[in-house]
Amino acid sequence: MSPRSHMLTTPGFATYTDALALNDLETRPAALLDMDRFLSNAEAMSSRATGTKIRVASKSIRARGALQAALAKSGYSGVLAFTLPEALWLAQNGIRDIVVAYPTADREALRQLLHSEACEHVTAMVDSTEHLEILRDVARSADIPAGARFRVCLDIDASYAPARHRAGTLATKLKVGPARSPITTVEQAITMVHACESAGVNLVGIMMYEGQVAGVSDGAHTPRGLAVRALQALSKRDIAQWRAEVVAAVRELVDLEFVNGGGTGSIESTSAEAAVTEVAAGSGFYGPELFQHYRSFRPAPALHLLFDVVRRPAPDTVTVLGGGWIASGPPGKDRLPVPVWPEGLRYAPSEGPGEVQTPLTGPAAAGLSVGDPVFFRHAKAGEPLERLNSVLVYSNGEIIDEWPTYRGEGKAFL
Predict the structure, then answer these.
(1) Are 153 and 125 spatial neighbours (Cβ–Cβ below 8 Å)?
(2) Which end of the chain is more exposed for a tag (fewer CB within 10 A), N or C?
(3) Which of 214, 375, 386, 397 is nearest to 303 (CA)?
């Protein structure tokens, strides 16, 4: 299968540098966001969802200007935040319908939530009675406003578990996917529904994230690539059956507002399920390096990092200041930022990307001078913006704006 790419995957780097020079923008490191590609990626993902609402995953964005631009597009509604303090801050800045994707033990943030209008449109995540006990303890505080109640979403395991429907402990051992929720059976889900009622919280949604499909690249022409594709095909069938069963059981007990699933890499398969009311997506807006290795969809690279050449240790080697922004996840070469322009640069074999300086070799090094920019593409979408105060916004041959990142607004949520 050839990748569905709706734009050329090689952006006009020379045009970017011309736009930077025209505006005398020489501060490095820097991030450049090609809004033409960003918006085209948004349209492509919405088309893949075939009418299913897409909730924007903020951890893959981390700049309010970009988040608002995504939410302004047809087919997008609501935010999937990564911490409760972030959700409170976004709510204070006018964003509604926020689901916090991960559980929290931050009692102060929970108290703030109950004391704010955000309590009506921010949903906390739970997957155990331990989480409910924290919510109940906070809600019992004497100063909590009368009638204030937490909205919660129940996170349920969506890993591939071929023995899920068999008795015994085998079902918990044969699993492939993220280590997330401990809720692995319908019975456990029902128990949690009753526990939510006893805790006095409003259960409004279910999340089931199949990371083994949505977050694992499947385009490698290797034995591992073949194995990943086979496993994902089996997992898609398994999760569709499992999600339908658990959602039906929960809906018999509570009127759910939403059922969230999937991610950028599984929009088609997740949105095709009748049990799902919304899918999540974030990485597809920026099109990071990891998503250039998916078969079903390759977003156009929209976010680029710029580092200055600052020295020349040898005729065929230059050194840029910075560059060692390695992505989270299992350690490996696929987590390294990739020098993409000028073409023909590679890491020095004995060093790699460094904390402060990064040597680069290759044919293109000979043509670079001190002060020239080198463009990198990060492995993951939102993480590099934690290093920068702003992102330069490019469109149609010029820099049209500069948006502060979370960091640039004085926020560091994770």
Answers:
(1) yes
(2) N
(3) 375
